[in-house]
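Summary for the steering committee. The consortium agreed at its last meeting that each partner would contribute one worked example illustrating the joint modelling workflow. Our contribution is presented below. We chose a case with several input lines so that the handling of multiple components could be demonstrated. No manual editing was applied between input and output; the record is shown as generated.
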Amino acid sequence: MTELTLPGGATVATPDPAAVEEAWRRVQLARHPQRPRTLDLVNRIFDEFLELHGDRTFREDPALVGGPAMLAGRPVMVIGHQKGSDTESNIARNFGSAHPEGFRKAQRLMRLADKLGLPIVTLLDTAGAFPGPAAEERGQAEAIASSIKLMTGLQVPIVVVIVGEGGSGGALAIGVGDRVLALENAVYSVISPEGCAAILWRAPDAAPLAAAAMRMTAADQLELGVIDGIIREPGEGAHTDHDATAAAIKEALIESLTVLSGTPTDQLLAARYVRLRQIGAFREMGGPSVEPEVPSLTRRLGRILRLSGVPRRPRWSEIWPSGEDGGDTEDEA
Amino acid sequence: MPIKFPFSRRRVGPTDAWTKCPSCDQQVFNRQLERNLRVCPNCGHHFRMSIGERIDLLLDEDSFVERDSTLESVDPLGFTDKKAYPNRLEAAQVKTGLREAAVWGIGTIEGRRVAIGLFDFRFMGGSMGSVVGEKVARCLEAALAERIPAIMVSASGGARMQEGTLSLLQLAKTTAPLVRLDEAGVPFISILTDPTTGGVLASFASLGDVIVAEPKALIGFAGARVASGTVGEELPEGFQTAEFLLEHGFVDLVTPRAELRATISRVLRLLPVAPVEGEEGVGEGRGWGPIGVLSGLAERVGGAVSETIGINVEPGANAGNGAGAEPVPGRMRSRTRAASREEDQ
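What follows is the complete predicted structure of the assembly.
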């Protein structure tokens, strides 16, 4: 890896220690072992819930649950990541990290909701999609991609609630919505803080620094426009009172769905598209930026000698040639 | 320092005249490598290509016009790790001569107009932040507006960490236009090159109507190290290669670079943009009777022709004909053609 030393480029700003501590505290709360899991919440929020199983293609994935439910007397489709509450149940649930079949089950349930006109509620709580060889073999990336695509086009309202960890592509796979909410101590990130620390700091114990740098708390996400609202948690956090947490979520869901259900479908879809299209920050400079390189006299002469013709425009490979391979791997999903 | 020969048309290899092939360990003369489309002449290893070389490889000469070249990244999070994000961006710009990791524009492939986006892995690992996502989305939207096929040539490590969830949401931003392409009947071709992983693969790159990969390209959701590290399982042979994905049904074709342009051109010919549907008589034109088949065929051909020309010639013909008050591009022509063919028989 070649790193160029630029003038004034050696700024190693230390992040505000208070911010680091605060970010890391939220991450810990979002991962708290007593935090209510999806099914804990579903059973409290909804009057009735019928869990459906299987992706109809390969197998049932217990890391992702879903099925029809009644919300204050109205039917909805609920889908969520499911972590365990102890070692045994966590192993059974694969720590809430779904395989491709989990996302395909979610897609199946979403299509069913679309067919019957049921609004969709998703609850996000995963460290990320499972990255193992079996998941790769069955197309983890394709499963996430097609799940995202499906959600952008569904004709029913979608409300997303990040209840714990919103971990990367595995979270976004069921996280495209018309209204995206988060519990107060939930976090949402492009990569786990540990993963980010390992790649950028080359030190996994820099995770708190990475958590602060990525601004992954609910408050930060609201500020960035990624989420639309925050649901307050009781007392010290959701783990202290599952009932109150569920009640707060229920209230927010009813409020959101009341608004969304009154919106005509075409407006709903147009707004969803605009919402996604607007996310991101960039600037647009005025005027053309990449001027085609003016050929030097020698090059022009050379061309004339070789081609005996009008000097042609430089080829694109001359404008953007390949240099040395490799470089930084600033990645992750 | 690169040596400049006075009359050399090509630039000499960047660091020195020789490159060691990572696959067969042979030393390859850089100029030979460039002449051979950056494919090792000994073992066929495909070296990574710059965006410029890709454009020259795939598109007709002088046909490419870049769009939205003025988009530039900002630092929405104030992200600093060992180095501040703006400094990383600047270093990548100096290194590659690009403003961002992706470029998009309009060009032609054997005369067919396409909207094409391309990635350079050397620019911060080809990672997708707000600008890259915006460019991909605009490319797909342009394809939709012009009703021309969309092509994405991916080479990316995934979403850009330095823009946090704004990068993550680019997965959705780049995927949403694909739903509209589906509805409009505009094909999308995804070309996967070494390496395509993470968030780019988990969004538009996996959703091509046709997905073409380069031989031995690394393609996967999680980096191989992540996969084995997290899971501690032994990785299968050829894990996360283009061939692995072909075997498991996630890519359509693994195509050597020398045949890539011809292959894409075939795909464009065989999967043309759907003809614009008239309000009436759609079923009729696509019927299975002899006339129906012929007119359906002619419709396809007519569609392709008007696509190539870039505009529809119909309104005039329509008016002269005096038949349809509704201008239905492609359909009048197809009927006329079908009729004349029938007469020939």
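The radius of gyration of chain A is 24 Å. DSSP finds 14 helices and nine strands in chain A.
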